Amino acid sequence: MKTIKIGILGLGTVGTGVVRMLEGEKDLIASRLGAELEVAKVADLDIDTDRGLTLPKDRFTTDANAVIDDPDIDIIVELIGGETFAKSCFERAIEKGKHIVTANKALIASHGNELFRMAAEKEVDIAFEASVAGCIPIIKTIRETLAGNTISSLAGIMNGTCNYILTRITQEGVGFEEVLKQAQEIGFAEADPTLDIEGIDTAHKLAILNSLAYGMKINLDDIYVEGITKVTLEDIRFAEEFGYRIKLLAIGKRTNGAVEARVHPTMIPMDNLFASVNHSVNAVNVHGHATEDVFLVGQGAGMMPTASAVVSDLVDISRNLINQAGQRVPYLSFQSDRISDLSVLPMEEVTTRYYVRFTAKDKPGVLSQISGILGQYNISIRSVHQKDGGDEGCVPLVMLTSMAREKDMQSAISDIEALEIILGKATLIRIEE
Question: Within 13 Å of residue 74, how many CA atoms lie on the same side as its CB?
């Protein structure tokens, strides 16, 4: 039986999981693949910590180049993370003619266009299923299963940390900071959680999926990104009263010759499937013209779920090697000469519905002043909720709007905030039905 040799860069959580799966499920994988996958070398700065692996010690090294330069290794698995060193390893591996599997969404989102171009010249396969939504096979679904579908929209809960935090606040009524601290303690959030809670991690994934779905260049810089740090328990409770739940959604839609690309807290109806996706679970919905909605749900992170996606890519590339059919599926779903310059719709031109909460002085005529300004910008009010006055003489005033343009909504809010009757900044959350 043929043996395909694997070199792994990075022995963190996912790297450890990949080695465990390749060793523990060696016979199962061989029976499906028709070849053995052998972990030939593993590089990491820390090769002394006991990770419970059974590989011989001579297969470990602290030198990534020793793995990349090994002529016997067929496929490199890049699990270093980050962009700078990982990118240099990627480029070296491509120059050496090595096929690559990665879970590095930041690298693909930021430098994928360049790396894919280099790989095509060297006839090298790059697989990156694990870069988006953990074990959910969303990349394979878009590239292969939906190859005959015109995709009009996609949306997803694609960050387990944010979903865990919002779920805990919703179900238990605890504060954001408290939940974040607990998430860090149990390993659901990083010591520096910025990439997660500010929506940046989700934006990386959306940039990749938009490219696959719409045949466009990866365009990370044009994605609108807003995290969950300003979502309060008060807003979550108001959302429930209106029949909605708040989730951090990535949204990509074809709109008037462009693509919407936005990441932000979103109110969705209680009967929407996304509303029941809780804790660290991820979910992605893709709408094709033939299939209509395809909804995938599963663990979006973690050692073994992500390792499963990496091993899936290893099997795919190995099948290509066995059958001498490299680059069988285009990196970004479309042939390279059919990748377009389709633009991202500016956020100010996006049209949706809105939830907006003001803190107003408890005086007659407040609602008429606010509705008057909204009317000036052609924004109509669909629902209003006003609590009784408090001890401090101010009340929360909550409104749901009909469809409105982002630019008009932002202008109206700015004018309303300037009123003497309004205290502080308004809270705005977009609504998707």
Answer: 20
For residue 45 the two structure tokens come to: 């700065």
Amino acid sitting at position 300 = G
Give residue 277's pLDDT.
Answer: 97
> Does some domain include residue 343?
no
Nearest to 214 by CA among 159, 277, 269, 257: 257
Give the CATH number for residue 102.
3.40.50.720
How many domains is the chain built from? 3
Q: Which of 35, 103, 3 is nearest to 307 (CA)?
A: 103
Phi first, then psi, for residue 373 (nearest 5°) are -70, -45
> Is the domain of 95 the same as that of 34?
yes
Q: Across all residues in the chain, what is the average pLDDT?
A: 95
In this predicted model, what pLDDT tens digit does every residue of 144-182 receive, in sequence order?
Answer: 999 999 999 999 999 999 999 999 999 999 999 999 999
User: Cα(276)–Cα(338) distance, rounded to whole angstroms?
Assistant: 38
Residue 282 tokens read as 């991820």
Per-residue pLDDT, 260: 97
Mark whether 283 and 396 lie in a shared domain: no
DSSP state of 143: I
Instruction: Determine whether 205 is an active site residue.
Output: yes
- Tell me the CATH number at 355: 3.30.70.260
Same domain, 241 and 293: yes
Same domain, 259 and 323: no
Give the other-Cβ count within 10 Å of 258's Cβ: 17
Judgement on whether residues 162 and 272 belong to the same structural domain of the protein: yes
Give residue 152's domain range: 138-299
How far apart, in whole angstroms, are the C-alpha atoms of residue 72 and residue 67? 10
Distance CA 114, CA 121 (A): 11
Residues 294 and 314 occupy one common structural domain: no
Instruction: Give Cβ neighbours of residue 185 (< 8 Å, ≥ 6 apart).
Output: none
Whether this model's pTM surpasses 0.90: yes
Classified as helix, coil or strand, 237 is: helix
Name the active-site residue from 87, 98, 105, 205.
205
Distance CA 4, CA 1 (A): 10
| Structural tokens at position 66 | 């020793």
Q: Which two tokens stand for residue 149?
A: 């579908």
Alpha-carbon gap, residue 225 to 236, rounded angstroms: 20
